[in-house]
From TrEMBL:
<feature type="transmembrane region" description="Helical">
    <location>
        <begin position="12"/>
        <end position="34"/>
    </location>
</feature>
<keyword id="KW-0472">Membrane</keyword>
<dbReference type="InterPro" id="IPR003594">
    <property type="entry name" value="HATPase_dom"/>
</dbReference>
<keyword id="KW-0418">Kinase</keyword>
<keyword id="KW-0902">Two-component regulatory system</keyword>
<keyword id="KW-0597">Phosphoprotein</keyword>
<dbReference type="InterPro" id="IPR036890">
    <property type="entry name" value="HATPase_C_sf"/>
</dbReference>
<dbReference type="Pfam" id="PF02518">
    <property type="entry name" value="HATPase_c"/>
</dbReference>
<feature type="domain" description="HAMP">
    <location>
        <begin position="316"/>
        <end position="368"/>
    </location>
</feature>
<dbReference type="InterPro" id="IPR003660">
    <property type="entry name" value="HAMP_dom"/>
</dbReference>
<dbReference type="Pfam" id="PF00672">
    <property type="entry name" value="HAMP"/>
</dbReference>
<keyword id="KW-0067">ATP-binding</keyword>
<dbReference type="InterPro" id="IPR050640">
    <property type="entry name" value="Bact_2-comp_sensor_kinase"/>
</dbReference>
<keyword id="KW-0808">Transferase</keyword>
<dbReference type="GO" id="GO:0016301">
    <property type="term" value="F:kinase activity"/>
</dbReference>
<dbReference type="Pfam" id="PF06580">
    <property type="entry name" value="His_kinase"/>
</dbReference>
<keyword id="KW-0547">Nucleotide-binding</keyword>
Length: 577
């Protein structure tokens, strides 16, 4: 019986639906629901805090942005930038050049003075390639530095007067960089009248200010704050972020989704098109539910133990009698018809056991009667087939004697009659079976009888595997085949022919088998031109063979003027000793 159709499986499903499912809901679904609720509340609070953080960063970026428009506040500085941008600047008088340099080296730094230490300074790149650095640390630009080839410079030029926010980078353009990484705001300074570009202004800020702003915001679980620019490059993070995690944050998930054990909350800094991402430690959120899980697991464990005790008690009480009946029916199926079910009680199961015992009794009586009838029928059929062989053999043998008498060879006739009498004793014995050795001895005598008649025209070659001599065969199974080979294969020809009979044990199709072959190199026949007497003899042999052995096989090959080969294969497991 398949497990899916068993009574135990149906009881298991019933218990599962009535007890286990509610326990699963209590243990797993409810904590998951509360975890989701806590995650949602934490995400909402984080979004509120992130709004404040974003506002602080935007305020700081506005301060940097104001520095980049400082040249527009001074007419003196703007005149100096216009003069620098004029192609004839080098040919102007020394006093005009002095005023220009004074405006850019003295006036502009006075305007750019800033009390905030985290704003590190500015750098102004005029149209003629001059570089003006304003810094509290009195820095100077690197000689012959290729400013115009830098990405931030090109970005400012492409913005065409609008502010450009530059991601974290090194101050490698200064001889004495104050820190390793800064972020900047850059702008192309244009002539308000002609709209011609005059210079590029860039203000640098220390990334430490981002750390201060991020640390001012507190979240209710352990978290990491990361800031990415519009090209998704990391500007700053409060903790080290693996490169693989950064790649996953290139396409920010919806707020509240989980990435690598972090709940992600993000917000855009609209002014700079930056993205601020807060990674909340999901394990800390789960830790808040450990108490609920522990209580739920204890309740579930107790409930499951109690359920299993009840289940196994009831299933043993109900299923054990059915198992016993199944066991009895399997033994009956194997032929043990004396097996009975032990009936206990007076309930419906006991009534079923009594009915099964009654059925086995009736089945035994029916099998006994049918088995005896079948045996009698098979025995009658077998004896009828064997009786067909004896007169046929005698008829052909006596015809041979007539032939010897006609040619006047009385010596051969006398010897043939003696051989026949020996063979008749073998035939008339009341045994239906004979060993392979006895059958081959009979074939040898029969062949000698035929050799007296055919002389040199018949050569008989017999071989028996010593391991096969003791196996039993139906008596006279091979004689009709040998007789057909002589009469229909050798007798019609006027040349010498060889008849070979062998009995061997071979390994065929992964099992041992008794293989008997009768081969002659005589006349042969076409498969569609089989003589009636040959067909009757072969049918007789085939029927006797299949009655004796269920899985036996007989195969016949013949070709005109080539001879005939008959192969009998009997699985060794069916051959009796």
């Amino acid at each position: 019986m398949k497990l899916s159709y068993s009574l135990r499986m149906r009881l298991s499903i019933l218990f599962f639906l009535t007890l286990i499912v509610p326990l699963i809901i209590i243990v797993f679904v409810m904590p998951s629901y509360y975890q989701k609720l806590i995650t949602t509340d934490t995400t909402t609070l984080t979004e509120s805090s992130l709004t404040s953080l974003t506002h602080n960063i935007e305020t700081y970026l506005e301060d940097l942005e104001r520095l980049t428009v400082t040249p527009y506040w001074s007419e003196e500085v703007m005149r100096a930038l216009k003069a620098k941008a004029n192609v004839s600047y080098e040919s102007t008088d020394a006093y005009s050049q002095f005023l220009t340099d004074k405006a850019l080296n003295v006036t502009l730094p006075n305007f750019l003075k800033n009390p905030r230490n985290d704003i590190l300074g500015t750098i102004l790149l005029s149209y003629d390639g001059s570089v003006y650095v304003t810094s509290a640390f009195k820095n100077e630009p690197v000689d012959n530095y290729p400013f115009t080839e830098q990405g931030w410079y090109k970005q400012a030029v492409e913005a065409d007067g609008k502010v450009s926010f530059i991601s974290a980078h090194a101050q490698d353009y200064l001889k004495k960089p104050t820190i390793t990484q800064v972020f900047s705001v850059a702008r192309l300074i244009k002539d308000p009248d002609s709209k011609q570009p005059l210079a590029v202004m860039k203000a640098d800020a220390d990334t430490v200010i981002l750390e201060k702003i991020a640390n001012d915001i507190k979240f209710n679980v352990r978290s990491i704050v990361a800031i990415f620019d519009e090209q998704h490059h990391l500007i700053y993070s409060t903790a080290s972020l693996p490169q693989e995690l950064q790649q996953k944050l290139l396409f920010p998930a919806l707020n509240g989704q989980t990435i690598d054990e972090y709940v992600v909350v993000s917000k855009k800094v609209t002014q700079a098109n930056w993205n601020i991402v807060v990674l909340l430690d999901n394990s800390e959120l789960k830790a808040k539910l450990e108490g609920i899980y522990i209580v739920g697991l204890l309740l579930a464990g107790g409930g499951i133990v109690l359920t299993l005790l009840v289940f196994f008690t009831l299933s043993q009480w109900i299923i054990k009698p059915f198992r016993e009946m199944t066991f009895v029916m399997k033994r009956v199926q194997k032929g043990e018809l004396l097996t009975r079910v032990a009936v206990r009680g007076k309930d419906e199961v006991a009534e079923l056991g009594k009915a099964l015992n009654t059925m086995i009794d009736q089945l035994k009586e029916l099998i006994d009667s049918e088995y005896k009838a079948v045996l009698n029928q098979r025995d009658a059929e077998y004896r009828a087939l064997q009786s067909q062989i004896q007169p046929h053999f005698l008829y052909n043998t006596l015809n041979g004697f007539i032939g010897l008498n006609r040619v006047g060879d009385r010596r051969l006739l006398e010897k043939s009659i003696l051989s026949l009498s020996s063979m008749l004793r073998y035939i008339l014995e009341h045994n239906d079976w004979s060993t392979v050795a006895e059958e081959m001895l009979f074939i040898k005598k029969y062949g000698e009888l035929q050799q007296l008649r055919f002389q040199d025209r018949l050569t008989l070659d017999l071989y028996t595997d010593p391991a096969a001599t003791a196996y039993l065969l139906p008596k006279l199974l091979l004689q009709p085949l040998v007789e057909n080979a002589i009469i229909h294969g050798i007798e019609p020809l006027n040349r010498s022919c060889t008849l070979t009979v062998s009995c061997l044990i071979h390994n065929t199709q992964n099992e041992e088998a008794l293989v008997i072959t009768i081969r002659d190199d005589g006349a042969g026949f076409a498969p569609d031109k089989v003589d009636d007497s040959v067909a009757i003899g072969l049918t007789n042999v085939r029927n006797r063979l299949l009655i004796a052995y269920e899985h036996a096989d007989i195969h016949i090959w013949s070709e005109s003027d080539q001879g005939t080969l008959v192969t009998i294969t009997i699985p060794l497991r069916e051959v009796r000793l």
